[in-house]
Amino acid sequence: MTGPHTTLEITLRSQNIKFNCLAVLAGMLLVGSAAAGPVYQPPGANLTLGDVTHGKRILSASSNPAAAAADRARAGGKPVRGTVISGSAGLEYGNIQNLFDLYNKLSQSYAPSDPGTGGGPGQNPGDKPDDGINLGDILDQLDPQIQEALDALAREVATQAALLFLIREEGYGKAWVAADAPFVFDKQVLGGTWTFGVNWSGSSKAFGLVEPIEFDRAVARQAIEDWVNTLPIDRPTQLAISDDIVLTPQPGTSTVFFAITNDSSLVSKSTQTTEFSFSYSREAMSVDSGRLYFGARANIYLKQLSRLSVRFGDITNSKELFDAIGDADFRSDEGAGIDLGLLWVADRYQLGAQVTNINEPKFSFPDVDLGPYRSEETITFLRNDSIYRLDRQLKLEASLFSEDRRWSAHLGYDADPVTDPMGDRFQWLTLSGGFTTDSWWIPSARIGYRQNLAGTELGYISIGATLFKYVNIDIASALDSVRIDGQKLPQGLMGSIGFEISW
User: Fold this and answer.
1) pTM of the full predicted structure?
2) What count of other Cβ atoms lies within 10 Å of the Cβ of residue 327?
3) pLDDT tens-digit map of 97-125
4) Which DSSP string do the residues of 177-246 spell out, in sequence order?
5) In this predicted model, what pLDDT tens digit does every residue of 73-100 receive, in sequence order?
6) Cβ distance 447 to 408 under 8 Å?
7) Which domains does the chain possess?
């Protein structure tokens, strides 16, 4: 952003810079028993149909807490008990192939931390000049062509800002994995239907905490003029042209080093979660036009959380840094959440609503080393970032069915966005339809569209099938595409396979 006449100000404050390093992220996920949840992508057939009560036997009961009682009533006294064991995975990535090289290039312009304050993995002092990057022949322009020197400095600041913008917009990658097993029990207790679920899921992410680079031409011009007008023997070894930028001319040479001194940093976060859920549902009201069901679900979260922060100036090998992220220690934390749901079921349609994590449980990440930091804003962010809250969310659903309920159409809508432990925001809108059969040889089929109304705002088209009555296979692909190694690929892919077991 260029200000009126005098100021070039690049403001990129606290932006999420994601990285296209899927192999590294996948490795981080699989360290020990690594998992992170929730990842906000439903498993099994729900990947296509959405987080709705679609009536597809056991799997339907894993969405709205009121669904199990409705499914049991619909079965007309037939046994409804079993589980669906599902495994899911997904990835999203941007349009930069050599991100490690780009990131290493960017970090070269940042000055390292003061000696004795820490530093970070991925730093090899012998590989990085202490004074920043060489600006070439600018020294020749300082005297007397100050305007040319200013233009050269402005171009370098703009270049650094462009690199940050490029990484922020295109250089990201995220991978997640999940396993889910909801259990429905046929025996009624206290007049209702009980379910039990176990969930395992995982994701990791690295992002940039970016402070603004401010370059005021008037201040810089005055600093350069003062330096030029000072006798060479009295000139300081370093020339500060702003609070964020220091020049280091090399006497007797045509060399000037350029260094950014602020606390822009790379932050990585990983979480591990094992989730147990217990739910109870029953009929609340019955009239000629339909029945109303309610349900409640208690979720127990056993989390492992990891966090690491390293200043840009302390990074010379980002691959080494990501290796260190994978080896980071985890802190244990526990919490519980409450979900409530309602479901109105008529002959040919149904409407539902649920509120998840009503009590909004909180979890704590480990503290990071604040020794290298000087910026109060960055220090405050890193302290506040240690707390993750499971946001309360209202989910709405509507479904239409044919008379024999073999054909169906579904709408799912998250009324408000939520943030996952990595800082990504999700608010799903899903539209789907399906055909269901009980045949061993004729598969059930489904198709759906899901749009994230927050965060990445990516849209996905998905298809799925149930083979031999009990095997669910679903795949979702983003509609946006990128080019990697010259090939055009979807920007995101998700897949799930599940096996239904009844007894």
Assistant:
1) 0.77
2) 11
3) 555 566 666 677 777 777 666 655 544 44
4) EEEEEEEE-SS-BTTBEEEEEEEEEEEEEEEEE---EEEEHHHHHHHHHHHHTS-GGG--S-EE-SSSEE
5) 776 656 566 677 778 877 777 666 555 5
6) no
7) 7-106+171-211+263-502 (2.40.160)
